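Here is the promised in-class demo. Please do not try to memorize the tokens; focus on the logic of going from shape to residues.
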């Protein structure tokens, strides 16, 4: 019979990790399952520390001995790969904003086509196909207003394209297998350029700036930079709140009266969608992406989430439950 470990008992495997300071708001989240205390979720590295009894319970159910120290390693997971460092940011900062050049548009369109056809898009609908094409049009437009560096819309669009490339280019294995002709790009440089332009997107406060901050958040999270990702997510959540994405209900998936074709009854899936409908639907998708990543980071770090359920409409999109169980 397994003995449930008391809360004040600490297994020696935890000893090489620093003890969190309660005064700083860090804490251990107790992890229980099937009546057993399996360990804690540490604010140090976000990986559950399983107690000795918890490990024994796992072995009794799986028949396998897990080598947890090999998983933890000797460093926090956000040190697994360096993020955008001062070298890249310094190179970008040397240039005026107007001289931060985008890659050739054909290359961006190739990466966009890869994203549209990838399974990654089903889990992370980062951009809307129609709206992002408009964003590319703005990012690559030329004219006196843009040349003078005064167009916040243009700067925000460029930052969004850079952020998009920084995330999608991380999917190198799938890209080289399915789209071998797409040229490689410098992922870190794309992220550095997006990060340099990010503060200039604040006056925009639109879906494009929301996409930019969230995609940079995702980029940092994929690299294991949890703390940087949390900061960028907080920025994205504030924009999302200001746009009202947390208050949109199931009605956001229905077409507006102005967009109805007038040819009988339509369903949300088949109804005509104008730009206003697309923006509303995509804003709701971005809310759910922010909500998911916010919950994930909160569990990893033990820190409070940025999104409070009490202030949100958490009704799921029509047909969502049915879709989850399709073969």
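The designed amino acids, position by position:
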């Amino acid at each position: 019979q397994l003995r449930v470990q008391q809360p004040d008992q600490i297994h020696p495997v935890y000893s090489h990790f620093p003890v969190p300071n309660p005064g700083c708001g860090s804490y251990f989240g107790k992890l229980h399952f099937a009546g057993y205390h399996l360990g804690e979720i540490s604010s140090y590295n976000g990986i559950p520390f399983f107690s000795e009894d918890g490990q024994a319970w796992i072995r009794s159910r799986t028949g396998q001995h897990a080598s947890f120290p090999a998983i933890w390693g000797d460093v926090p997971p956000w040190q697994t790969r360096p993020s955008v460092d001062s070298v890249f940011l310094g190179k970008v900062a040397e240039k005026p904003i107007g001289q931060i050049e985008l890659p050739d548009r054909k290359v961006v369109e190739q990466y966009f086509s890869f994203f549209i056809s990838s399974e990654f898009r089903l889990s992370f609908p980062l951009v809307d196909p129609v709206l992002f094409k408009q964003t590319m049009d703005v990012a690559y437009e030329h004219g006196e207003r843009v040349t003078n560096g005064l167009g916040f819309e243009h700067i925000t669009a460029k930052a969004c394209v850079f952020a998009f490339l920084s995330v999608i280019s991380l999917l190198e294995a799938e890209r080289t297998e399915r789209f071998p002709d797409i040229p490689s790009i410098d992922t870190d440089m794309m992220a550095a350029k997006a990060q340099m332009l990010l503060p200039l997107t604040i006056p925009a406060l639109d879906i494009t700036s929301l996409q930019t901050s969230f995609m940079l958040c995702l980029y940092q999270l994929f690299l294991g930079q949890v703390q940087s990702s949390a900061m960028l997510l907080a920025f994205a959540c504030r924009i999302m709140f200001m746009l009202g994405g947390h208050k949109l209900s199931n009605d956001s998936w229905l077409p507006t009266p102005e967009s109805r074709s007038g040819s009988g009854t339509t369903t949300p899936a088949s109804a005509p969608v104008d730009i206003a409908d697309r923006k509303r639907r995509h804003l709701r998708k971005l809310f759910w992406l922010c909500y998911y990543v916010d919950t994930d980071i909160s569990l990893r770090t033990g820190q409070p989430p940025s999104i409070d359920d009490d202030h949100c409409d958490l009704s799921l999109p029509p047909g969502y439950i049915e879709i989850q169980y399709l073969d």
